[in-house]
């Protein structure tokens, strides 16, 4: 039972983290800046 809960938590935290990483990578490829408008 504990293993199933850990798996659900891994998915719940992992999916938004991967989406954020892909957005960060996409922003860098399009603009050439990690934080657009800062440097």
Present the secondary structure layout:
Layout: H1 2-31
Q: Summary?
A:
77% of the residues lie in helices and 0% in strands.
Write up what this structure looks like.
The chain is mainly α. 77% of the residues lie in helices and 0% in strands. It has one helix and no strands. The protein has one helix at residues 2-31. The longest helix is centred in the middle third of the chain and has 30 residues, at 2-31. The chain is rod-shaped. The chain starts with a helix and ends in an 8-residue tail after the last helix. The mean pLDDT is 83.
Given helix and strand content, the structural type is mainly alpha
What is the 3D form?
rod-shaped
SSE order, one letter for each helix or strand: H
Rg value: 15 Å
Q: Portion of residues in helices?
A: over 70%
Distance between the termini: 49 Å
The strand count comes to 0
- Tally of contiguous helical segments: 1
Give the low-pLDDT segments: none
Mean pLDDT: 83
Q: Note the beta-strand portion.
A: under 5%
Largest sheet: none
Keywords: Membrane, Transmembrane, Transmembrane helix
Organism: Prochlorococcus marinus (strain SARG / CCMP1375 / SS120)
Protein name: High light inducible protein hli13
Transmembrane segments: 12-35
